[in-house]
Amino acid sequence: MSELSHKVAQWVRTEIRDIAAYHVPDPGDLIKLDAMENPYTWPEAMLTEWQQLVRDLPVNRYPDPAAKALTVELRKAMGVPDNMGVLLGNGSDEIIQILALALGGSKRVVLAPEPSFVMYKMIATFSGLEYVGVPLNADFSLDMAVMEQAIQQHDPAVIYLAYPNNPTGNLFDEEEIEAILKMANGLVVVDEAYHAFAGKSFMNRLGEFDNLLVMRTVSKLGLAGLRLGLLAGPNEWLNEFDKVRLPYNINVMTQAAAEFALKHIAVFDEQTRLIREERSRLFAEMEKLDGITLYPSAANFILFRVPAGRANAIFDGIKQRGVLIKNMKVSSGPLADCLRVTVGTQRENDSFLAALREAL
Fold it and tell me: pLDDT tens per residue, the chain (360 residues)?
């Protein structure tokens, strides 16, 4: 070991050295159906209006630290109850990190079902918290007996429930989430990143449980490049979390662009409707193929299982035909032999279906 390597090993925490950095592949010229993005761009008239607005942005000044004007638009667009508070983050990732910093401490636990959003575990690890993953049932529903046992044993500071779940796409049973809210001493964060495609939400139930918070992002609406997340819930919680939020975490461009876009929410509602329609069509076409197992989705992606041992070959075959999807890269466990495709435009989905048929 070199002297530099020795110093790195001496000072960087062991749990950080033992994990891999979050990797995002370069799609190049491939049709990009791997990251749950909205495939539609803004209408030309809307782009022209936005370009005129950009010219007058005071980028030489710090942004509004409270993002007041943007928060007003977000509250309307997201249906946040009037008596609930809102905290903004640089994507939902920063909000998860803020919660970890505020709730962290010796032997504090973050708990979530598995498989689920990888950042719950990664940020808990970054922050020195213990992470406990609770396995889902074979159909990706909650195993309530195991969940209850884990909550009683670990008394988690926060439980994350992705609703719909990522990467499986399913909605957990509403009554089971209620049961978790009642049995948990700590916070329960219902992560509604894909709420626009789900038709169900816990947003209107804020205040019914004193430990319920709802987290959302504008990424899946079609604003992934802005990096903007939202946490809604009682001000008693959010006022404390705001103390560890870094100043000016929502930059001038993001505030202006998101505020402008949300005033045109009807555009994104229509795009969301098109994605839901394409999701149904894509699912129906994939059902006709032999050798794959589909999992119902309330999100903008579809998880599917291919014949044992063939996931890598089928993924590569699809990629060679010009389409990039997500390879779960798991040889055992609940996601073994699974691939995930984002719902794109009709043309993109047709290209994927043709590539899948040939790769199978």
Answer: 788 888 888 888 888 888 777 777 777 789 999 999 999 999 999 999 999 988 989 999 999 999 999 999 999 999 999 999 999 999 999 999 999 999 988 889 999 999 999 999 999 998 999 999 999 999 999 999 999 999 999 999 999 999 999 999 999 999 999 999 999 999 999 999 999 999 899 999 999 999 999 999 998 888 998 999 999 999 999 999 999 999 999 999 999 999 999 999 999 999 999 999 999 999 999 999 999 999 999 999 999 999 999 999 999 999 999 999 999 987 678 999 999 999 999 999 999 999 999 999
Does a structural domain hold residue 46?
A: no
Angle at 131 between CA 128 and CA 137, to 5 degrees: 170
Are residues 77 and 31 part of one domain?
no
The reply to whether 200 and 70 lie within a common domain is yes
Domain-located, residue 5: no
Question: How many CA atoms, within 13 angstroms, populate the side-chain half-sphere of residue 327?
Answer: 18
- Burial of 178 (C-beta count, 10 Å sphere; 0-12/13-18/19+): middle
Q: Which structural domain range is residue 156 located in?
A: 59-263
The total domain count for the chain is 2
Q: How far is CA 271 from the centre of its chain?
A: 19
pTM: 0.93
* 271 in the same domain as 249: no
Rounded Cα–Cα distance for residues 181 and 211 (Å): 7
Residue pair 345/39 in contact (Cβ under 8 Å)? The answer is yes
